[in-house]
Amino acid sequence: MPKLLAISLVLFLAVTAALAQNRVELTILGENQIPLEAATIVGEHGGFWITNSEGQVQINGKRGLIVKVSHVGYFDLTDTLDFDQDALALQLIRNVNQLQEVVIDYQQDQILQNPTDQVVFSLNSISEVPLLMGVADPIKFVQLHTGVSTGTEGNNGYFVRGGGIDQNAITLDRMELYNPNHLLGFFSMFNPRAIDRATFIKSGYPAEYGGRLSSVLDIRTADPDLVKFSGGAGIGLLAVDAYLNTPIIENKLGIQAAYRRSYLDLITQSFFESDSRIRQSTDYKFSDFIGKIYWQPNEKNNISLTFFTGMDKSHYQSSRTFSNDLNWKTMNLGFSWIHQFNSNSLLETYSNLGAYNQRFSANISSYEMHLNSSISNWKTGLIYAKSLPSQDLVFGLEWNQRWFIPNEVDVLTGRAEFVLQESSTMPTGEWAIFGDDWIQINEQFKIGIGLRLSGFLQFGPFTRYAQDQNSEIKDSVVYNSAQIVESYWGWEPRLRLSYLLNPENSLKLSYDRNYQYIHLSPLSSVSLPSDLWIPSTSVVRPQLSDQLAITWSQITKRYLENFSLALFGKKMQNQMEWKNGVIAGYSDSPNLDDDLIFGRGYAYGLELKASKEKEKFSWNVNYTLSKTMRVFEELNDGLPFPAKYDRTHDLNLTLKTELGNWVFAGMFKLASGTTLTLPKSKYLIGERVVSQYTQRNALRMPIYHRVDLSATLHPKNHPRSKWVFSIYNLYNRDNPYFIYFDVQGSVTDYSLDINLNQVSLFPILPSVSYEVHF
Amino acid sequence: MKCISKIAFLGLLLTGCSTFDESDFNEPPKVVVDGYIEEGNYPIVYLTYSSGYFEPVDSASLQELVLTTAKVEISDGEESEILTLFRNSEVYPPFYYRGTDIRGEAGKTYHIEVTSGEGVYQSSTTIPKHVPLDSVWLETDPENDQLAKLWISFSDDSDEENFYRNFVRVRNESEKFFPAYQSTIIDRVFNGQQYEYPVLQQPDDFLELGDEILFQRGDTINVKFCTLDRESFEFWRALEQELYLVGNPFGSSGNDIPGNVSGNLPVLGIWTGYGMDQRTIIFK
Fold this sequence. Notes:
The complex is a heterodimer of chains A (774) and B (284). Chain A is mainly β. Chain A has six helices and 50 strands. Chain A is 6% helix and 58% strand. In chain A, β29 and β30 form a beta hairpin. With 284 residues, chain B is mainly beta. In chain B, the strands form three sheets. In chain B, strands 7-8-2-1-19-17-13-14 form an eight-stranded mixed sheet, covered by helices on one side. In chain B, strands 6-5-9-10-18 form a five-stranded antiparallel sheet, with no helix packed on it. In chain B, 39% of the residues are buried. Chains A and B meet through β36, β37, β38, β40 and β43 of A and α1, β2, β3, β4 and β15 of B.
């Protein structure tokens, strides 16, 4: 590590001295040549500027710097700065109606963020990709990328380059979210009306990102318009939504609010008899809300407060003797203050609070079981960013305090209540200090060096029980409040290299090391209450990954056509599984982590991307060939076995074309089935059929494929409204959701019959939605 | 570019298809031991063979699935006995081995040895002392007075870790005892206390419970309340979880059940000793 530090220091000094400076005064103009205040300009390697009240900003950089200019109410503009004049004006086009929408394609942004694996996309760019039930969902969009595979159909959980669901950080305005999904994970809680952009990173992480092994999805809410009042409403098959955006003090203070709610329950719960089957099986509701207050007291400061909440609540009753309830809720409040010292340095201070709770209840006759799990957290940090000519520096630190109640189980037998799992809160703290430098060595060569030092503390009160071989409790160690139970820390070096072979071809290389201190116990490939978040303890050690990725990209005809090929290899340590036969919450073990086993994982693969963009027609192909393996001493006789969500092939193809007022889009997905373990033989115990299984994950589900289509109409006479017609699963393919054996008859009648059954979730699903903006 | 996507597409078609091959679900049969010895009763042992998952269980396959030619020997350390083969067409398999001399006694350890062809399989189990039921009562369902729930109450011993399993028989319906729904209990949460527990009948479908788990007016109910050792408890608990998890996509299915029988050839199964208390109650 000292070596790496020394090298980076030498490079840093050499580069700083060697590079000449270019400067341009940029003026951003809006409609009628009015200068636009608070337009944001993002440089290709992370530089960030905001225009002053005259719409002006000074930019230093290298000749050929690519920038993206954004302002609320206008289309984003991408341009190249040549620095051959002292002043330059750029004109933005007003986003008056969706008809002339110039979709900011994510590939362009990708080039901007060159050379890491960052993908920045605006919600506009995905609104015309056909999506489940017509809901524009940033997570669904991420699932179309190379290196990203999905678990089960429709589920929002995703697996990036061999990592687990918990290895993806999802943040909204820097607030940490644990399960931001509705409807058991079929789509996310992010109402697209309130979202401005999202950044997805799977390798080549700048040092400010950390805490998870496999990916980052950094979602940012839109800033409220400080000049004009606007709003809108929409209705789809699943939910209704509305949003409002209004200045309170012109050019100083504005607020924004977006609310969404399902409405099926309102109909079924009011119009059907209380004992009707429809009413009993559709008692499900969800809602989400994003609110933001944005205050810009002067040109150098902007302060924002974001409030986010999302909840799901379901009740299912199949008979008088059996019912279950499933609820989860997240609530977050985040504060951010960005202070601009001058046009090329700023300080961001943020602090946020979060509370996530999930509760599962089952009622069998008068036997009731409740399973609760919750996490509260307080996160705060500082980020200082400085753009020097040919360099972008970022320094910062972060503290994230969490309080876990991983698994509280209580049982009510009608007469007495028993607490099966202790409910004591586990306080923990996670910290990080980081520095990152993104350096342009010469015309062709760029290097990014980042270093992150992170650590974790588990605090008391906590009791650790020691067991003998027969699992009988022999001893216990009690830690008092605020006493440190366990601590970990580690260095996370990051390196990104980019070499421009010629104006059309470039080679990129990245190495990342990441630590992860919190874990999701993965009982199945579906995110459910049986999956519990747990902190690192003396038994559960932090997860660690090392990833190497190399990419060759080709961009031709001024970004209209591009192609890239990436190879990656990733090693993961301290991966976690449940012991065989465990059902979370039913365990008899005294310590939370007694039923877990640990091993390692590795993944490698090849990713191909190709796309072409023409005025009226564009297409995009993403293909991944990969292998994801796990090695656990206690499983599969210690031999490597494929991970549950290992998909050898994964292909996503999207097409889009415009015809008059219509935009048509299509999506085709083809992927290998996920792996599974099935019984290979059976035997009888007490007249019950018991299964013996194959090697772990030795079999594969049938191949997955599907076509979705959508057609968007922007009516000529109502340019501010939009109709979206979509068809999910066009040819009604029965894609497997899960496979099980159905045992019919009984051995006592000498008529036992076993069949393989497949459950498919979504048949052909047409949907329509309408939205209007004002 | 087009070329690359075509190649990728073809590659997928060639290698991506996967169907299940029946041969994935076959393997050589293993001997399966399902035996128990209850306090006060003769030992009973069922011997069968495991079979391919898709192979049917019907009269035609009976001969291949039931082992009727084995020598089954039980000993308690002092005496030993070779069990006799009996026939009972009410249960499956219709053949079982039973003793006629040794009866189960609390505190004793019983060894079993099964010899069949070249295979020799052994196990042993201890009968823990039984825990008497303090009371057994019925609670009529508040919504339907033709249905009732059965409750038991017992006093747990605080000095040791206790494992329980209960069985029920509805005399007017069957001669057989069936394990209750969620029949295994461990005293971790009620160690040393008096504990009340509802005894429910096995449901038809583990994922969807209906009224069949309750008792009906007119039923004569026998309840067997048993104690067992840790090894046996682990087996029965794992088995019940597995029965619950098969077909349940949300559980960690794919688990082998930890039996306590070993041998010179692969073998599966369990040999359990039960301490036992029994009561009868009539739902009038």
